[in-house]
Amino acid sequence: MTFILESGYSFWNPLVWIILFLVMMVLIYFFRRQGQEKYKKDTEQAQIFLCGAEVPAPGERHIRVGNIYWGFFETLKEYYNQILKLHTGIINDYVAWFVAVTAITAVILLMAGLGK
Amino acid sequence: MSLKSFKRALWVYHLNTGSCNGCDIEILAVLTPRYDVERFGIKLVGSPRHADVLLATGPVARSMEESVRRIYAQTPDPKVVMVVGNCGTEGDVFHEAYSLVGPIDQIIPVDVYVPGCPPRPEAIIHGVVMAWVKLEKAAKQPAHRANSLAGGEVA
């Protein structure tokens, strides 16, 4: 029984990958063993090094992905401030906006239709 | 002098506690081709967690005190602290300045002092060798330092 899957241009053999994986694991284990063994666990020696600054709690360490849009937010800050005021979280307000926008759109379409 | 028990390259973390950079430039000179201490396996590393020697310069600005303590605590044992320059050794012209809490041995225990303003590269290399010898002793006796203010040696 052969495990070789040939495509005409290449082949794929799971045994090769398993052997490669095992070799990689041995190498990782070897390099890991070269590390410092005498550090004291559960002390500052095992803490993250942040140039000597205090390391924030895990929950506060995360940088939000939205931070990459900082430039946009900063430039459009005034616009967002106005828009955010409209987002009250009250469903009646949202329905009122929907009705108002629908009514204005309908009026515009009606006037455009009458003009033809 | 034989170095037997500490059988690996000596990795040094350079900690600037508020130096004018005079000593730091001399430390860099030690790494240049003229002195080239890396051929002996002595090299600067970017984290105290990888270091055997904590090499400190500067008179310890008040804002750096906590960082100095934390970096010392983060350095794995056995470790040696080495001070380069007059400022870190005894304060020099900044002695008793309002913004300082040093010299460094007021904050963390120091093993080797290299006085000078700035010290010559040869003096720094001599200090590193003394630090290496201390590490040899520390490697033989892992618990010989209990974070006490141990007496240091002058290079």
SSE map:
The complex is a heterodimer of chains A (116) and B (155).
Chain A: E1 5-6, E2 11-12, H1 14-33, H2 70-75, H3 77-86, H4 91-115
Antiparallel strand pairs in A: 1-2
Chain B: E1 11-16, H1 22-31, E2 43-45, E3 53-57, H2 65-74, E4 80-84, H3 86-90, E5 112-114, H4 121-140, E6 153-154
Parallel strand pairs in B: 1-2, 1-3, 3-4, 4-5, 5-6
Helix pairs in contact in B: 1-4
Give a description of the structure.
The complex is a heterodimer of chains A (116) and B (155). With 116 residues, chain A is mostly helical. Helix content of chain A is 53%, strand content 3%. Chain A is built from four helices and two strands. Chain A has a two-stranded antiparallel sheet. Chain B has a six-stranded parallel beta sheet, sandwiched between helices. In chain B, α1 links the parallel β1 and β2. Chain B is an alpha/beta fold and 155 residues long. Classes of the chains: A mainly alpha (116), B alpha/beta (155). At the A-B interface, loops of A face α2 of B.
User: Given the helix and strand composition of chain B, which structural class is it?
Assistant: alpha/beta
Portion of residues within helices of chain A: 40-55%
Number of strands of chain B: 6
Global structural class of chain A: mainly alpha
Principal-axes geometry of chain B comes out as globular
What is the strand tally of chain A? 2
List low-pLDDT spans of chain B: 144-149
Helix fraction of chain B by DSSP (H/I, runs of at least 4): 25-40%
Percentage of residues in DSSP E strands of chain B? 15-25%
Looking across the biggest beta sheet of chain A, what order are the strands in? Answer: 1-2
Strands in their spatial order, largest beta sheet of chain B? 2-1-3-4-5-6
Q: What is the N-to-C order of secondary-structure elements of chain A (H for helix, E for strand)?
A: EEHHHH
Descriptive labels:
heterodimer; A: 116 residues; mainly alpha; two-stranded antiparallel sheet; 4 helices; 2 strands; B: 155 residues; alpha/beta; six-stranded parallel sheet; 15% strand; globular
